[in-house]
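Whether sequence alone determines local backbone shape is best considered at the level of individual chains. The sequence in question and its structure tokens are set out directly beneath this paragraph.

***
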Amino acid sequence: MMRRHFDYTASDFDLSAHEGDIQLDLQSIDLPTNSVDVLLTPHVLEHVPDTTRALKEIHRVLKPGGWMFLQIPLCQGTTSVPLTPEFHADNTPVYFRFGWDLTDQVRNAGFEVDVLVTEQWRDVLRGDHPRLASNGDGFAVEDLMDSATTWIDATRDLVSVADQNLSLVMGFLPAYHFVVWRCRKAV
């Protein structure tokens, strides 16, 4: 559907679980420098062994002023390695369970960063809304709320992209499931 509106190329690493036009390894992207306008990485980075190398490669291939929209399962406050083998509906292992400190990693790779969240999650993290409780889905919600102040500036870094009504319509619930890092390569 995106091809109707954009010059869009889908990639995958192992091509066994998803269809892709090309096969790419984010740690060594076989594309020219400054050649990509927008890069979408929905639930990909946690499957890459070397985060620093992947972020540098993404920065390299983006055009000046280009964007990366980075989404990962944000299940806990601080990044760690899984204690047992973990897979997310495909054949690639999970190397990292990322936390809010991913924001610093992305900035250290040279990106300007803000974090897109629902209005409710932004207000919770700013302390303007009652804290949320976990629904038993494996997300460490207390840790996410407590760790946020260590790694992000809730007034500067968080950008609300959906009020409560839009969150209901789009299914962005619970609010803590929907976090996207909007990363821009400086011009």
Q: What stands out?
A: The longest strand covers residues 62-71. Strands lie at 11-12, 22-23, 36-42, 62-71, 111-118, 158-162, 179-185.
